[in-house]
Amino acid sequence: MTNYPTPHINATPEDFAKTVLMPGDPLRAKFIAENFLTDAKLVNNVRGIHGYTGTYKGTPVSVMASGMGMPSIGIYSYELFNFFGVDNIIRVGSAGGMNKDIKVRDIIIVQGACTDSNYAHTFNLPGTFAPIADFNLLQTAVKKADELSLSYSVGNILSSDVFYNDFEGVPENMTSSALWGKMGVLGVEMEAAALYMNAARSGKSALAILTVSDHLLTGESLSAEERQNSFTDMMTLSLETAVNL
Question: What digits encode the pLDDT tens for the residues 40-49?
Answer without folding.
Answer: 999 999 999 9
